[in-house]
Specification:
The complex is a heterodimer of chains A (about 900) and B (about 550). Chain A contains 29 helices and 34 strands. With about 900 residues, chain A is an alpha+beta fold. Among the domains of chain A are: about 180 residues, 3-Layer(aba) Sandwich (Rossmann fold), CATH 3.40.50; about 260 residues, 3-Layer(aba) Sandwich (Dimethylsulfoxide Reductase, domain 2), CATH 3.40.228.10; about 150 residues, Barwin-like endoglucanases. In chain A, the strands form ten sheets. Chain A has a six-stranded mixed β-sheet with strand order 5-4-23-22-21-6, covered by helices on one side. Chain A has a six-stranded mixed beta barrel with strand order 29-33-30-32-31-34. In chain A, helix 3 runs parallel beside helix 20, helix 3 packs across helix 21 and helix 8 runs antiparallel to helix 12. Chain A is globular and about 80 Å long. With about 550 residues, chain B is of the alpha+beta class. Chain B has three domains: about 220 residues, Alpha-Beta Plaits; about 120 residues, Formate dehydrogenase/DMSO reductase fold (Up-down Bundle), CATH 1.20.1630; about 140 residues. Helices cover about 45% and strands about 10% of the residues of chain B. Chain B has a four-stranded mixed β-sheet with strand order 8-1-10-9. In chain B, strands 2-3 form a two-stranded antiparallel sheet. In chain B, helix 16 packs antiparallel against helix 17. Chain B is elongated, with a radius of gyration of 27 Å. The chains are: A alpha+beta (about 900), B alpha+beta (about 550). The interface between A and B is large, with 86 and 71 residues.
Amino acid sequence: MTAPSTRRIPVYCYQCVAGPDLLKVEVKNDVAVRIAPNFDICNEHPGGGRVCVKAYGLIQKTYNPHRIAGPMRRTNPLKGRAHDPGFVRISWEEALDTIAAKLREIRAKGVIDEQGYPRVAASFGGGGTPTQYMGTLPAFLSAWGPVDMGFGSGQGVKCYHSEHLYGELWHRAFIVSPDTPRCRYVISCGTNTDASGGVAGVWRHADARARGIKRVQVEPHLSIAGAMAGEWVPIRPKTDAAFLYALIHRILHERDWREACDVPFLAHDTNAPYLVGPNGYFLRDPATRKPLVLDPADGTAKPFDAGAREPALEGVHKAAGVEVGPDDQVWTHAAAVDAKPAFQALRDHIARYTPDWAAAQCDIPAATIRRIADEFLAHACVGQTVEIGGRTMPFRPVAVILGKTVNNGWGGYQAVWARTVLACLVGALEVPGGLLGTNVKINRPAGDRLKSVQPGPDGFMHYPFNETTRDGWQAKPHIRNAYRTLVPLAGHSPWSAALGPAHLPWLFQRKPPERWPAPSKPELWFVYRTNPAISSWEAPEVARRIAEFPFVVAFAYTRDETNHMADILLPEATDLESLQLMQIGGTKFIEQFWAHHGWAVRQPTGKPPVDCRDMTEIATALAERTGLLAAYNEAINRGAAGVKLKGADYDYSLDPSGAHGSEAIWNRVALAASHELSHGEEVHGIDWFRENGFMLRPFPETDWYLYPTLKERGLRFEIPYQERIKRHGTQLAARLHEIGVAWWDKQLGEYEPLPHYHAFPDIYVGYARSVGRDPDEFPFWALTARSMQYAWGSNAGLPIINEVALNVAGHKGVIINRSTARRLGIGEGDPVRIESVAGATEGRAVLREGVRPDTIVMIGQFDHWATPFAKDLGLASLNSVAPMALSLTDATGSGADLVRVKLGPAPGARSAA
Amino acid sequence: MSAFDGQARQAPAAGLPPRWGMVVDLNRCIGCQTCTIACKHANDTPPGMQWRQVLDVELGEFPDVQRLFLVTGCQHCDDPPCVPVCPTGATYRRADGIVAIDHDRCIGCGSCAVACPYQARHIAHDRKRYFGELDTLQERAVARPERIGVAQKCTFCVGKIDATLKHGMTPGKDLHATPVCAAACITQALRFGDFNDPDSDVARLVRENDSFVLNEAQGTRPMIRYLYQTPAIPGGGPDLAAMDDDRMRDPGNPLVGKLQQRWDLRAAMNFTLGGAGAGLAVATWLAQTALDLPASVARFHYPFAAAIIAAGLLSVFFEIGRKRRFLHALRRPQTSWMSREIYAVGLLYLLVAANLWQPRPTLAPLIAASAAAFLYCQARILHAGKGIPAWRAPLIPWMLLASGLFEGFGALLAVLFVTGQAVPATEASPLVLLLAALNGWLWRDYRADAEAGGIGPLARDRIDAATPWLHAVGHAVPVLLALAALAAPAGAAAPLLAVAGVAACAGGAVWKIVVVTRAAHFQNLDLPRLPRRGSGTRSAFAAGAEYIEGSP
């Protein structure tokens, strides 16, 4: 007998947006047996080369006996939860031929349907993570042409939506992060960093804690991150903006702001000195149309870039000029009118939001609010500098970070605006120690956020707003979620479809609003690494809409609630079974701040236990069968696999006419990637990557910060005053009213230059009334929270993940305050029923003290009914009770994971005790 | 001698042999379970078994609450209570301090598991699969049949340490040489190293920071130390004492010791039958000596006593994980009361057989002595379950001895009645009264001392619930019947005494079953110090909190 051959094969894990992390798979006799971190990269990876708990589920994922064994075809034409699909095994040839025939049929009719929508739609999981597993499928979609990628699977309600959009506008920050290694004081409104920050994030935060960082966690329940913070402030749900406004009030009205704030930063790096005219638009120089500032040196108003050394931030000044309003409306103020700097407008605006006012809103003592504001100032180090990479930069080690449900849905705009204003008050935006962005998804180029800093109007960065002018506005949506029509901030990048109101297609499919056509159903829907029938808000409703789709092609790992409605199941080679190269390093998503960048490989580690295929092979086969091979190959050559195969000094292009195998394609990608990275000095094929796992080059740490680039380009941050937002909002209102659409009016009210606080909780409380129910029936807030163990990875069907997750409170059921439970006669482990106006869900009670008495928490996303193993867990899910409604949709098209519910013992259930 | 024999903050003397251990930083650990699952991968542990576990602990009441994550597992104690109790020598402490298990020697008796105050030892009696009956390729490839039915626990990845030391690597510094939980930890909350090496991370961390150990009062001197402060987070606690009984009864509270599952009714029957049988042998000899019980009668009592003991041993035999290896239990008489118990019972059987084959007056006292020794071993076996406060209570050995004598005497009265013999009530009843009083008094004191002795409310509830029954059946009935026997006519005394004897045996069974199987909750996890963080009064930053300025 020979000794078993053992190999350790390097791959990456990018199951969640907080990746990638690199690991090695121990393989014995072609069977993957164990996972371990890839310590080869421990010095370069910002998380010490480690991988998180999820990566260790990959082996069980590979050998899950519930995997789809081979391609399947539906035999039952009836679709829906109650109908057994009657899947039968078919060959890969039959499966691919069937799909290709459907695609050719569609192509023959035209890729756009009679309503102007793409006939083919595709939905992928959140955060773009599926891209790191789908091989060259993007090249096939690119070759195909218009595809509706706007059917959400929870986007908007499950993401940092307002942060994404406004973050990109203000500081190229699709994701916002503290500069954790240097930060000293963090106010975290519901950011569960220690569950959602990925390995790099939690590693950096742990180091920061050991060093002495102070974190105040403001949230209704004591999350993982809250547990690790020095202080937990149990705020009333959805009142975070009020809390943040009161912090600003404290600084601007109760403290000596000139002493406490970074006045030069405000004056020269923001629009704080820009004069605002009587109509709420910047007062501009009539000739150049440049915004004016008041120069106290000579008492005159002059263009912002005309050299005023200390432009006025306060007061009301007399100045002449013009205001440019919506649709080029111009107010000419030939005679001097009252104008005040944006900063004065901010002070006036915030005057009403006192700590005492906020105390009543937020259920936080005013003294606590004042103390936190004072500590924020005390740690801001205004005036200090630090040298990084030979460069002297401001040092402002304070940050305010926001979590999901705070930075999306109603109040999201207010919250992200307030926290960005707080950063600006002390000059802590995009400087060492302060508040940083990590990446861009709307601005271009996607790979380099510093290069996306291009001059725009008024001294600000350019931003790719969707047009709202009469001529430019896209009155007829090009995809079913209408992001270009309804959300100027969503831009028009490949990501924008997912950043629009991605729930609207489902909502409108049920009942279109007035003067809006019922959206056609896509004739073919691809679904990959996502499960909207579980993950959407009002998931059961989405499941019903999916059942109406005529032809669904699901890349399927196991059976699940979405592919229950599929016509064809294609078992793709999963994480440890397929080949792909991906970019790593630089600055990325949550807290991926690297001092290196480069490429890493994912590769097959053993023989797959089922008849699955690599996504690249599937994409090539589809391209070949649909006659799109040339366009497909050209798309790869243009960079659809992550890098252009032809550059200035290299050409590894694929022959457009050939059907290339996965190995051949990724070999070309490897050659081009290594060539580009090393400027031709170290060129490697895919075999080298398979052996070595990754290739890196240094990435300057100074590139973590946007501020130096802004200074170099002579630009400033577009904050605090939102003139462009106001203008777009007014124009959009006009456009929509012109075509008779009034159902978006509430959203249009959000386009304020200085956003007002509204009683946001009332929106959620009052929703019951709008559907004919009494709000008093639903006295509790229901929230959700991140599970590091389950999030993103399709892990709900993995028993080993369940086993370890059960060690973390809340994974057994619904978190309820112990006193509340006692009052309701609910004991630990008792079955409970949670009911909202939209639906009901059941689980078991988990009694805790670390949750407000008026709040319950359902961690993760469960309530499965088809996914093997997961369907037997009996876990409740917020998605089953969260209503999907226009009135709960904010102007950016997002909602919040927040529902008013009633809570009680499950009927007919016996107490666990 | 190790670095921990003195103050933790003291620098270790150079030149000492390695003393491997860990430092866990409570302000780093986020309870992510990566260490747990990494350990499961590296050590191929079966479903549900976690050598490295991280508990999600909540303290206080809303709005003054805090939450922390507590890494637990084998503490590789300097004075490990699991080692001396092991009857086979399978569990041993290496020169470098690692507490290891020889799985080929272990019989799975569970003595070590109940001796551990950290609930760190596990036994899987059969092979479990993650997907029920469905086996996976990987599970087949990593199955560890040698670990079925034996004790297992964290080894500090000892194989890795031994292998890598040979290659000149330094565990704790070289990740490939470090236990996987520490090497995989994504917050560097777990550090491993040599406490005797002043340059190791662990030595430096405990030198530079205040630290504590879990359950210090148990005197095990664990080799995992916990850090709890940062420049921004001051220390607080202790807190456990402040937890009211309600929270300590809360099954969701991970600090509360779970009910032990290793020794069930089968083990309890060994204590019950063993006590009664050994007591019968002793009582018979006493009756021979003091009450003139004829040797010809007594001769047959001894094999009967031995049979009762055998039934108990057979019962517990069915509980051990590796039955064919049961003779391994003879290998540790130096320290193990279980080994000694087997030697004692072996001697007893030899003597009983000899006495049966060729009765000699000198044999009876030897039989009684070996039975008493057996009974004493049993008393010490239960008392050596240091992980179970209800067992390690100082009165437990006395209770088992006194109960054994009472049950034995009771059994004797019953046997005599059945065999048509009789002891006069004037001689028997005072003994019944005396033994009933003694047992009743011991139980009363045991119960009174329970809380002070660290027996938690869950166990106390069960002790309390059993008390009326025990007093009624085990003490009051024998007393009343003994008194009645004194007053009864000569012919009626014997059955009354026999019933009193049966009641005494029943009483013994009641309390032993309750103590062994129902009130046998593990030691709570005692945190003497805490990071001061949380809401309200627990906040690190709220007014009144000790405030240390952080300086990165």
